[in-house]
Every structure is written in structure tokens, then in C-alpha cells.
Amino acid sequence: MVNGLEFEKPVLELRNKIKELREFTKNSDVDLSDEIDKLEARLEKLEKEVYENMAPWDRVQVARHSSRPTTLEYIDLLFNDFFELHGDRLYGDDHAIVGGIAKYKGLPVTVIGHQRGRDTKENIRRNFGMPHPEGYRKALRLMKQAEKFGRPVICFIDTKGAYPGKAAEERGQSEAIARNLFEMAGLKVPIICIVTGEGGSGGALALGVGDRLYMLENSTYSVITPEGAASILWKDASLAKKAAEAMRITAPDLKEMGIIDEIIPEVKGGAHRNVKEQAGFIDDILTKSLKELIGMPSDRLIQDRYMKFKKMGKFTEVKESENIHF
Amino acid sequence: MLKDLFSKPKKKRYATIPSEAAKQDVPEGIMAKCPDCRKIMYTKDLERNLKVCLHCGHHFKMNAFERVESLFDEGTFHAFEERISSENPLNFPGYLEKLESDRKKSKLDEAVLTGAGEISGTKVAVAIMDSHFRMGSMGSVVGEKIARAIEEAGKMKVPFIIFTASGGARMQEGVLSLMQMAKTSAALKLFSEQGGLIISVMTHPTTGGVSASFASLGDYNFAEPGALIGFAGRRVIEQTIREDLPDDFQTAEFLLNHGQLDAVIPRLQLKEKLTTVLEIHQQEGELAW
Predict the structure, then answer these.
(1) Is B98 in CB contact (< 8 Å) with chain A?
(2) Cα–Cα distance for residue pair A141/A91, rounded to 1 Å
(3) H/E element, A33
(4) pTM, whole model, 2 decimals?
(5) How many CB atoms lie within 10 A of CB B98?
């Protein structure tokens, strides 16, 4: 059983109680099945209440859950013959981003994604999924390779952000991210992007300029972490919960703002409760979007992609024009 | 009295030490003090020198209008007409009021001025960011204005020059600000595919989301001396890696040394250098041999 989070405690407690009663019924003569039925009905209602009314901060907790499925787990469940490819051919191989070639239901594809570790040791090796410039440059190299061979690109986004370190700055973190935005905008093959966990700012966007953008129900996508926003806004990082609400970073928020195409539903309680089932939900949308995009001429693909991002933003056109005088 | 002429002037028994505030206090408007070498000079002289310190060469911040004046042939610049104004998508208290007050102070309608004009006779489209307006931060309007200016450059078939000065994405517009990085970069890609020339001139400061999008995407990436340029903030990095960073970290010169810039160009040479680049890109003209 995966550890429970604060907001779902009532559900887990009730579930435990039912389990206990079942054990008790089994080992004694007293029949409690009526009670159990009643409690189960209550559990169902409670689950609905809790999981369908998750506050932004609850979703942040789920998105950051240490057992939340990572890119490689989804790759394993969704693709065949995944062949991981390494290195940016310039400096090194960044383990915070994985990528390679694979088959999706017979279709050759390139898959790229941020990769967190499943335990402390792996997390250190993968730098907690926070890439250096060489990670982004590896991703770009693989995208260009996909373009050459006409393979669609599928990106899994799951990072707290690009790594804020000295070496990263020296090697051009800004340029590496900027270059990906630029080149992805002109890539001649379909790009499908899925935010599976945390979508942390520019470090996430550097794998996020695609023809379709999806978010898992409990994932987040933001310009700054709730902690960062809280410390800037109120000089107090402990107000992160409040900031998570103010900044509008959840999947339903982004859908409403017209940034993402669709929300991918999550297993009740979060993707970590059942990775296989979760992969199934992703599978559905992947099939659907690939069917829509494959065969589309590349100039149309690129034009539509530009218009998709051109539409993002909120502003008012001011009618009367007063000239600027010098 | 006559005898006063012959007497020694009274000595002060105590020397007055000017207060800390008085030391910093320079009569506003007439004199300016260099934050780097601390020398004082006439504001008029400083402005005539394109806001470059007469003593140490420190580059003071320029506003968008001063930039226009320093670069464009007289009377050739016109601002693009479109007027778009920000909304308050996250309902941040006081956001619209802050924009209004910056509008009054800066005489700009947002943190970027876009337009077209001639530099030494070559027509170009420009976007000039101004850090006096909300730290030059990029929200929906800044992103949209820059994207439109790039599209306009494409229609006019002229080079596009961007002067960056920005603290990064505008937090008050949340993820919509983030998406402006993609929008502007995509606009540049389409312009670039048409063969358009892109020149980026990074001025102090160019950080965060602006540094990680159009600022770094020039065919030529230049910077002014001493400009702060980087992705992550210095304090964040120091906290992450738990070590002190060198003094010149994330300066234009630091970036040049690490291969991230084509050149650092002092402001007084900027027009001349840009003219050279633009002339080399002229499609017409007789061959020199």
C-alpha cells in the first residue's frame, strides 16, 4: 500500500476500518456484512467527495509523490522495442533526460522525457530530474533525428525545472532551452507533449512546444514553484499552499486558460495507485492524437503549431491609437 | 570691520563628517553619480555620452526612447501602432494599478517598444525592452507585441533587432507568461526560415525566461559590457550548490568567455558595429572585386 497523503486520510481510514471488519467477520461467528455494506457505500461517497474536489495543493502533493510513475515506467508500458540513446555529442550525457527510439503499435516513434529517480541513489544520478544544457541538447539531437526519418516525437514532461547551477549557466542553460523552443516550433514531424508530473517553468517548456499538449489530471504546469511564488509575493515560502491556488497551476486551470488540449484522467487517488491503468489512459489519447496528426503535411503542421502558441495570452486590443511622441 | 581683514579666520573645532545619506545625495537632475566608480558628473554630459560613465565606462540603464534616439537615423523611427493592454488573468490584487503607474512613469504602454526605422540607412524592425516598466518582465502583452513585431519584420522583409532588458517572465500572469517564451521563439523560427536576419542585443539585466527564449536566438548575439545575463538567479544558484560564485558570474564578459556570445559591444560603438553587420547582410550592392 502506498503511503497516503494528508487530504485523503479520511478515505484511507475508512478503508482500513472496512478491512478490519472483514477480517473480524471471517474469524468470528458475528456477521457484520450489513455494517460492511453500509460502510462501503459510505466509502464510495467519500472517495467521490475527496478525489473529485481536490484542492490545488492536494494535486501538487500528488504530482510530487515519491512513487509517482516516471517517464521510463510509462515508456515500458506504452511502447515496444524502446532503445535508449545517449549523449548530446557536445559535452556529455544528462541522465535527467532520457530519450530513444521505439515502436508504438507498430509505428516508429522517438520518445523523450524528463526522468526522476525512484530512490535517493537514482535521484542523485538523475539530478532529481533537473536537466543541464546537455540534456536539452540531447533531446534536440533526437528530435532532429526523428525529423530526418519522419518519426513523430512524444515528450513526457516531469521536472521541477532546469537545474540552477554554476556549470549549467557556464554551458548555456538559457541558450539550450531557447534553442529547443525555436527548433521545436519548426520541426517537420508531429510532436505530442504530455505533462505527467511537475511542469516546472522553462525547464519543462523546453520539451513542451508541440502540436498537442496534454496534462495528467493531477499534474501541474507553472512559471514558478508555489514555494518560489510565495517567497516573492509574501516573503514567506511556507505560504506555498496559498500560492498554489493563486498561480493557477493545475490541469483544470490550464484547460480553462486554453493552454492545454485535454486533461488525461487519473486513476482514483493518483497515477501511483495503478501505473498500468494510468498508462492505459495515456495510451487512449496518444492513439487518438497520432491518428489526427500523422499524414498532415509538415507546413500545415508548423503553421498550426505556431497559431496554437500565438493564441496563448490574455490581453485587450485598445481601439483608439494615440501616437507616441518624442 | 577693518581689523577682521587681518585676523585669521576662525578655526572650526570640529570637522563635520557628512552623514551617509548626504554622501549619497546628489542634486537630482543636474548631477549623476556612477554606481560603479562613485564619481560625479553632469547629467547632461552623461546623456551626451549615451549614459556611459565618463570616468569608468559603466553603462547606466537606458530607457526605450533613449535607445531609439541613440541608434536610429533622425526622424526615421515610428512605433508600431497596435495598442494592446494587459488583463489581470490571475486577479492579482493591485496588478492593473501597478501597470497604470508604470505607464505614467515610463510613458510606455508596456515593457517593450516595437517599431521600425533606419540605422545608417538600413531599414530594420525592432523590439526594445525597457526595464523601467515592471522590471521589463514578460507577460501576455510583451510576448504578443514582440511576436507581432517579428511578423511585421517578415512582411517588410527587413532585419529584426531585439534589445532585451528583463527580469524574466511576469509572475502576475502565471503560466500565460511562460507560454510567451514559446510564442516569441516560434515567431522567430518562422521568420528565420524565411531567411530573416535576427540580431539580439542583451542589455542589463537579461535573465530568466527572456534569456531562455528570444534573447538567445539571434543569428548574432551581442551584449553590452557588464550586463547581467543568465537563466537562474544568483541567490538561487548559491543556495543550490552551496558555494560562493565569482564576482563576474553571469556578466556579459563571463558569457563571452564561455562561448555564449558573439561579442560584447560598448554602447558608444553599437551603432557602428550594427551598421557593419547590416551592411554585410545587404543583398544588393556591387561586388568589391
Answers:
(1) no
(2) 13
(3) helix A33-52
(4) 0.91
(5) 13
